[in-house]
Specification:
Radius of gyration: 17 Å
Helix content: over 70%
Strand content: under 5%
Structural class: mainly alpha
Number of helices: 3
Distance between the termini: 49 Å
Number of strands: 0
Shape: elongated
Largest sheet: none
Order of helices and strands: HHH
Length: 69
């Protein structure tokens, strides 16, 4: 029984780490988009093109930029 609960705990820890990494990556990319827009006078689309952000992920980053204002 102890091994089972340890396995469940490890899976939970791994999920938490993965979510944290994903959130950190999203925040960094959002900040990079904003920086390109500010320093290079790019539109959000141009900045996302420069960063090679996939088309299907762009609406998520546009939403994140609105929330960070």
């Amino acid at each position: 029984m102890c091994n089972l609960s340890e396995g469940v705990e490890q899976k939970g820890i791994q999920k938490g780490i993965q979510k944290g990494l994903q959130k950190g990556i999203q925040q960094a990319l959002t900040e990079s988009i904003k920086n390109l827009m500010d320093t290079m006078n790019m539109t959000a689309k141009e900045a996302m093109d420069a960063l090679k952000i996939k088309e299907e992920e762009r609406s998520r980053y546009a939403e994140l930029m609105k929330k960070q204002k």
